[in-house]
C-alpha cells in the first residue's frame, strides 16, 4: 500500500515538474535577438510637422505621444527583449523611423503587442495609432483598414532542420508534417493547394512553438513568410535552415485607420525618403540582413 | 450573412470537429468522473486518497496547462503517440472528470444512508451497492449541475484551437487572415454555440421531468 502511494506521489511530482519546465520556455537558441544595435541608423526628429486633414495625426499631436502596434515574438522583425523590455527588429525600426518623420522621438512612443487576429480591431478602435508587424497588404483587408507601403516584400518559405535534405520546396512537402500559426495565410495556402495531407497540418498559437516541435522532430517543416523564418534560423543556425524558395508574395504594409488618406500619403512619403537616402538599407543590414541574405527595397504603392 | 456564406467551408467542418470533441470527451468524462466518485466514496483509504488527490490536482490546474502538458511535454516522454485531436480529448476528459466526480459525489450524499445499509444487509458487494442502488438515485438528483458541467465542457473545447485542432474556436483566426469582418464572424460562432447549448438544455429538461423524484 505504501509503495502504491509513493509511486502515485512520484508520478504526480514528475508530471508537475515536466509541465513546469516546458511552460513558457521557447526553443533554446543562442540568446541572439537578431538585431545589431550598434549598426542601426539614427533618425532625425522632424520639427513642426502638420498633416492636414488627418484625424489620427490631430489626435496624437494633441496627446503628445504615440502608440504603435507591433509583434513581440519574431526575432529580427519585432522581438521584445525579456530582460530589458525593449523592442528590437526591422519592423520596430521602420515604426521608429516613421514616428521621427511625424515629429516624435523614441521617448514618446509606446509599443503595444497586438496579435495577428486582433490587428483590425486595434486599428479601428484607436488602441494603436498605426501598426507595423508583418502585416500583409491584401485587397480584402483594405476594406477595413488602409495600408502605407509596402516597406518590405516577403514570400512564403519553409524552415527545416539543417540535416534535412528531403524538403527542397513546396512540391516536396507530401507526407511531411507542416506547422504554422492557427489560421494563418501560409497554412491556409498549404491546405488549399494540398501541399501535404490534411492530417499532417499542425497549427499552434505561436511560431516559436512550431520551431520547438521542429527541433524535437515532431514536425518536418515550419512555413510562413521568409522574413520571419530567417529570424529563427539566425537564432539557431546550427540546427535550422530556410529552404530559400519562396512561393508567394507578401507585401508588408503599415496598417492605418481606413478613413485617414492624408496620413497614409505622409507615411508613404517617409518610407520613400528612407528608401532613397539609404536609411532603409541600413535598417535591413542591421536586422534581417544578419541572416546573410540580401534584399532590395520594394516600390511604394500609393492608392 | 455574407461572412457566414462565404466561409461555410470553415463553419461546417470546424463546428463538426467541436461537436465530435464534445461528444467523445463528454461521454469519457461522465464515465471516468463517475469512476472517480466511486473511488472517493470507497471503503479503501488508498482509493479515497487517490481520488481526492486527482480531484485536487486537476481542479486546480488551468485547462490550458493541461493542454500544454499533453501537447508539448508528454511527447518527450516517448510513450504512445497521440494525435492532436486525441490529445485534446484526453486533456478535456482529464479536466472535466474532476468536476463531474464532485457533482456525482454530491449526488451520492443525497441518497439516505439507510439505502446503502439495507443493501449491505442483503449481502450486496460495494460495486453492486454503488451501481445498482446508490448511483441510479444519485444521478437523478444531479441532472442540472451535470448538464452545467457538460455545457462548460462544450465551451472549453475552444481551447483546442490553440493546440492544432481546427474547431469552432479557430474560426476567428481564419477569418482575420482572409480579411473578413471578425466581429460578424464571431456572432455566427456565438449563434452556433447557443444552438448547441439549447439542445443540451432541452435534454436536461426532458431528463429532469422523466427522473423527478417525489420526496
UniProtKB/TrEMBL annotation, chain A:
Does Transport appear among the keywords? yes
Q: Which Gene3D superfamilies match?
A: Periplasmic binding protein-like II
| GO BP, sorted A to Z | amino acid transport
What SMART domains does the record point to?
Answer: PBPb
Entry GO terms, CC: extracellular region; outer membrane-bounded periplasmic space
One Pfam family here: SBP_bac_3
Q: Cross-referenced InterPro entries, in alphabetical order?
A: Bact_solute-bind_prot3, Solute-binding_3/MltF_N
Q: Which UniProt keywords apply?
A: Signal, Transport
Source superkingdom: Bacteria
Q: Which residues form the Solute-binding protein family 3/N-terminal domain?
A: 65-291
- Signal sequence region: 1-21
Which PANTHER family does the record match to this protein? ABC TRANSPORTER GLUTAMINE-BINDING PROTEIN GLNH, AMINO ACID ABC TRANSPORTER PERMEASE
The record's comment on protein family reads: Belongs to the bacterial solute-binding protein 3 family.
Q: What is this protein called?
A: Glutamate binding protein
Species of the source: Amycolatopsis methanolica 239
Automatic annotation (TrEMBL), chain B:
Provide the membrane topology annotation. Multi-pass membrane protein
Extract the InterPro entries matched here: AA_ABC_transptr_permease_3TM, ArtM/GltK/GlnP/TcyL/YhdX-like, MetI-like, MetI-like_sf
Where does the protein principally reside?
Answer: membrane
The cellular component terms of Gene Ontology attached to this UniProt record, alphabetical and capped at eight, are: ATP-binding cassette (ABC) transporter complex
Q: Where in the cell is it found?
A: Cell membrane
Q: Which SUPFAM superfamilies does the annotation name?
A: MetI-like
The record, for Gene3D superfamilies, names: MetI-like
Where does the sequence pass through the membrane? 14-39, 51-76, 82-101, 183-203
- Which GO terms of the molecular function aspect are on file? transmembrane transporter activity
Name of this chain's protein: Amino acid ABC transporter permease
Organism ancestry: Bacteria, Bacillati, Actinomycetota, Actinomycetes, Pseudonocardiales
